[in-house]
Amino acid sequence: MKRVKWISIMALGLLSFQQKDTSPIWSYPSHFPEPSYDFTRNPLKARVIDLGRKLFYDPLLSGDNSISCASCHSPYNAFAHTDHDLSHGIRDQIGNRNAPALFNLAWQNAFMWDGAVNHLDVQALAPITHPKEMDETLVSVIEKLKKQAAYRKAFKLAYSDSIITGERILKALSQFQLTLVSANARYDKVKSGRAVFTEQEEKGYRLFQTHCNACHTEPLFTNGQFVSNGLPVDSTLNDAGRGGVTKRKQDSLLFKVPSLRNLSYTYPYMHDGRFKKLYQVLEHYTSANKALYNLDLRLQQPFLLNSVEKTDLVAFLLTLNDTSFVFNAAFRDPFTKK
Amino acid sequence: MKQLQRLILVCFISGFCQAQGPALQFVPVLNGKALVNGKSIWLPDIGDTVRITTCRFYISGIQLFRNGKLVKSYPSRFLLIDMEDTTSFNLETEGKVRFDKVRFVFGVDSVIQSSGAFGGSLDPSKGMYWAWQSGYIHFKLEGESPLCTARKHRFQWHLGGYRSPWNSIQQIELSVNRNNRVCLELNDLIKTLFKQQVYELMRPGLKAQEAARLLATSFYKE
Question: Residue B207: which domain range?
């Protein structure tokens, strides 16, 4: 009933849009839970999404106009920063973490590896203002956008007037990112009856449900919680994770559980990108060699897998790759000439 | 003739409206005096001068009472008081409201803090939002004093925090009426933090919470 109500609100929002609206309507499959994002406060509109897409790909958002959101969140890598353990930003500065992949954000309640950001609408402020990422201010971004006729026009199309505010910039960025729904992997096709797992994938699925699903909970493949999975502290970073935000000992070394969707595109893995290959991740979880401080109770004992089982598990994990998401032209750089 | 009558009526109404003025004013003061950007003020309590360069804070959730009964509330009004803009001190109302008590939030409540981006005085571009860790800065005071041992003798206090255990949101209640101003005296805060040699507060925590609680006792009617 709730979903029907929500869809009705969305539909009303789209109907109330005065101009011709041809962009795809946001949707998600029936095996997904209710999104947690409050769309009534930021109803999706095609032209706001278009504006958000432009902003997402525009290096104008950085202090020296060199870095865009997409610099670290590439569409071809499920909006992750592939091949870099630690993401790099403005003036070739190296950050402290691996930029996370961006998809299914409507189901997230906390953002960044440590959950320092509490809402999607304010998430963009963190990279925009970080001295190692985009090193810019929202006020300066507003001033730069005001000088561009194309943006004045885009804001007018999106909001009926050309007034450019921080709220509008942030909400437009949210709208584009909310459209990044990854729900058409082989796994999803199996769940919706459009495909069946192979025998090997089926075996891997059972292993996954036994050993991984408690934290990487399907269908989003994350439970959205913060846990320590026993990674030894990198002394060159000394990243306390969630503990750095809450200043509580019990939160030290906890990081947000990432989704396992699109794994083939989002390497390297972990908050500091320390594992380049998926087999290294499996080695970590099946090894007894873990840091014990705040180690999650579910990981106190390593789960034992033989080589065949590891192969089966990987076969299942590969069913979480959503190529139609990764290669969706609607998500690509709007400034690139076709 | 009719036009003249209309003109007189308009003048009368606009004159009446102007005479009404804001229902209430929230005014930051130092030693009882209005803050003037760039002006050094001698503070006997610290034995030196202080020059305030920034003073901004949020007043929200304003409720007006008369004889114990709520007569008017402003749940969606978030005043961003800025020493550089005296018009920001004003709580404007539609029509004349009579009251003998005001209740308000010093800061921004936790519901707003966890509901995304807002416009108007809450727009993150106003410089009162922490980007690196979500949350509004309830109160910002920056200035200089020869006594301050921080870089360039500058002190910067940004008080925020809405989550337990470092929630710094304060509820204030004062007996006031339309003829009063609600003043926020900054002297005690400066005296206390200078004595503790705390010249920089930039994140939620115990010090910020204590400072916010001290400020909550520094409101008075004038």
Answer: 23-221
